[in-house]
Amino acid sequence: YRINYGTPFDLDSLEDNDFLDKNNVKLIKIVDVIGSLDNNYATFDSKGNKVNDPFPTPFNTGGFDLDAVGIIHQKNIDNTTNLYSTNAILYPNPASDFLMIDAPFSVEEIVVISLNGKIVYKEKSFKTTIDISSLTEGNYIVVLHGKNTILTKKLFKL
Known about the structure:
Number of helices: 0
Number of strands: 9
Distance between the termini: 36 Å
Helix content: under 10%
Oligomer: single chain
Radius of gyration: 19 Å
């Protein structure tokens, strides 16, 4: 964890749960980190505080930094390609109808996710071109799954 960058959290601070293996967490989803003090749009935390940075964090400097999430006590990833050394190219990007994928590994599944977390496209068999014409204009995350690799890329749909 690089100090002063990202929002650190420790899985050990979570309550024990028979369904959660804290030593085998691969992905984390951050949900509802924005808020409003306007009563018409407010979201509340577990203590009844309106969620609007810096609540509900217990630290006086508080809040979320969505530039990054700090990983505390990181373990090495076994049998997985280093995600930072593997790259793929999506083109054209921005795209309107079709998206070409050029990856240096064998892609077994392609998933396109909207920014609200909804899967809008999923294909098990790899194609080098996918039809995105049915997607609405906006930003998406493209997740490429290989045998030992998961890579995410940004996509802007025109």
